[in-house]
Amino acid sequence: MHGSVDDLHVDVEMDGVTIRQAQWGDMNAAIEDFAAGVDTRPVFKGLPDDRCQCPHWGYVLRGQARVLYADREEVLSMGQAYFLPPGHNVVYDQDTRLVEFSPGAEYMATLEVAGRNVAAMAAAAARS
C-alpha cells in the first residue's frame, strides 16, 4: 500500500487543519497539515486527562510543534521522526506537515470524542 497527498482521502478539513488518511490493515496512515497557532487541547477535552490517548509514530516534513505532556514538553522539528505515547496535546508553532501512523482502533476512539468537541465548537461559533 502507498499513498501521496494527491491519493489519500481528505477526512478532516477545517480552519487551519487538513488531514488526509487511509486505513492500512490495523493502522491509520495520515498526511496532516496544521497552521501555526493550532492547539489540540480543546479538541481532546473529555478524554482521560483531557489529552490524546492514541499513540502516534511519524515524521515532520516541515514546521515545528510542541508536544505537551502532564510532566514535560517536547519540540518536534522538520526532519525529525517521533513517537508520541498516549497522554499528549500538541501546539503548532509553525505551519507544519506530518506523516503519521496510528493504531486504527485507538485512533477511531479518540476521533469520536474529538469529533463531538469540534462539532460543539462550531455550533458555539455559529451562535456568536
Our estimate of the beta-strand percent is: 35-45%
Low-confidence stretches: none
Q: Strand order, main sheet: write it out.
A: 1-2-3-9-4-7
Mean pLDDT score: 94
Radius of gyration, in Å, reads 14 Å
CATH architectural category? Sandwich
Please state the oligomeric state of the protein chains shown: single chain
Please trace the helix and strand order, writing H or E for each element.
EEEEEEEEEH
Distance between the termini: 44 Å
CATH topology: Jelly Rolls
Main β-sheet description: 6 strands, antiparallel
DSSP strand tally: 9
- The tally of helices reads 1
CATH domain class name:
Mainly Beta
- Helix content estimate: 10-25%
CATH H-level superfamily: Jelly Rolls
Helix and strand content put the structural class at: alpha+beta
Task: Describe the global form.
Answer: globular
Number of domains: 1
Task: Provide structural commentary.
19% of the residues lie in helices and 43% in strands. The chain is an alpha+beta fold. The chain has one domain (9-127): Sandwich (Jelly Rolls), CATH 2.60.120.10. The chain has a six-stranded antiparallel sheet. A three-stranded antiparallel sheet has the order 6-5-8, with no helix packed on it. The protein is globular, with a radius of gyration of 14 Å. It starts with 8 loop residues before the first strand and ends with a helix. The mean pLDDT is 94.
